[in-house]
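Lesson 9: reading folded outputs for more than one chain in a single document. The general rule is that every protein is listed as its sequence immediately followed by its structure tokens, and records are never interleaved. Here is the first one.
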Amino acid sequence: MHLDVLPGQERPHAVPKEKIGKIRIFFLCHGAQGMDICDDTFVAIWMSKIAVLIICNNGCTVSEVIIGYYVIALLSGMLCKYIQMYGDGLAGAVIMGTGSQPGIVLQIGKLICRMIALFRGWEYRSAFVDNMAFGGYNKQFEPARTPSDWLTKDEAIIDACVKHPWSTFRFTVNGYYQMFRGIQYIQNPAHIQQIPKNLPLFFVAGGDDPVGNNGKSVTQVCQQYKDAGIRDVQIKLYPGDRHEILNETDRDVVYADILTWLNGHLA
């Protein structure tokens, strides 16, 4: 297994070299998980045509990287949109830490962003919108050591996260508006129907991940994909794990399970 990362990003935890085989995976992290683009540029790429999904150290583009490969993404919304638009070029996908939101909530979120932008401009960074989007995730872990305890049980990773500017910056209202818009897109049943029916999908998530409503939303999304006629949809929930399962205390188990799934689906 060969792991490629974005320039400036630390490489994920190592996978045992004796299990490498011929699997090539490109990890993609958004700003809050280690990316070195701390503005709305990345969000705009995610929500538009996704002209460049992954930029590796050698400058590969989507057509050079993704076609014929399995793809794993930590930003599940981006991957879901990608497989809806370009799934024919993939051999499979592993989707981590996904969830779902009621349509009315997304509509209200967009409306609030538009109202704030009317008076403050689209580049304004709103604490209110930020709290509306992410503020509730830490509640089930109160009393919490930090505002980021919902990410993982590994306190060393949490401490590094809260000290790093790449993990603590705030999106503009434009960034949040596009995020809400993108979630609406990927939850649209017509867009889910665009996913190739023979594309193997593996959903993995923490059982205590508030983004996935502690596994309930993940299960719901899996069922939606099955109902859309996708034939090979599997799910694995890790009890006690939070949002970033590749940074969890049992991450070796997560890596091993993903590798087992990949090997089981290789032609």
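And here is the second record, again sequence then tokens.
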Amino acid sequence: MESAERGVMDELGRRAAEIEAPHAEAEAAAPVPEAEVVREVPAWRRELESRGDRLRAEALAAHAGDDDEAPDDAMDGDAVMRLAQAAVAELYSPPRVTAVLPRQSVPGHRVPGLSGLVAGSTFDLHKDAAGVAWDFTRPADRKRAWERIRAEKPFLVVGSPPCTMFSRLQLNLNSAKMGRVEWERRRREAEVLLVFAVAVYKLQVLGGRHFLHEHPATATSWRHPAVSRLRARPGVGTVVAHMCEFGLQTSAEDGGRAAARKPTCFMSSSPAILEALSRKCRGGHGHAPLRGGTRARDAAVYPPGLCEAIAQGAAEQLRRGPCKNGAPGEHAVRGPAGV
């Protein structure tokens, strides 16, 4: 798996070198080898099982003098899963989903309905929770983020790469104004960020953990080869949701506020999260268009209802335990063969 990871990083470096200054030192590009089948038990699962064994032993000891046996369901798999702290990390955004979760540094703090989940690292293009800005077009920043995610092993990574350069609207309105050379430079830069996100998602899948990726349903990024390959993996699914169902609003023609439909596609390895996000507009309200002014940019902000739905879906996935029927965590997953 490590050789596959190195290959992914080398390939990302090659792509980034195409958009960096001519005299910048480019990273060596190497083909990404096919990793061997991995059957190791994920670290987070080993920890849960270890905790479960200790707690089960304590429960048996407490019932040692009783005539009846300890309840069969006193320490089942779901209970063990609920006892663990599972971190949620966010890639390319400030704290959004993590903002509704307790911090790991605050022991005993729990949010009703989200038992077991805690806020993990955020990697913001502008400023993360620690006030640090990340420039993911730089190989050094990508490597730092990659190593931190590898070390922290978050239960869930929520990724939202910048989508501007994959927007048909932007292509029609701004490509001519920007000029071909500048447009192509920005497109390649956006592609580096997209491909790095996919590499992180694959790292999650290889470890038996989960990811959630979000882009507008009409974005051209859904046809990118790296995204298409990940989407085709067993255990990975997609749903299209309407953001008005989560409370998204934008400015209306009359100067007030109106619901924004904004069809959005979510891709994830977590069935519970996809179920929580599978909402379509039920009507009963009008929609404001996203064209004009700052409407499209404003609509990129996650409404509180969306953050809560993602957190609730993650909590439900944690409660269910590892996926079955060929989903990640229950079968041998091959490393990335290329991005």
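What the second record shows: The CA atoms of residues 212 and 257 lie 29 Å apart.
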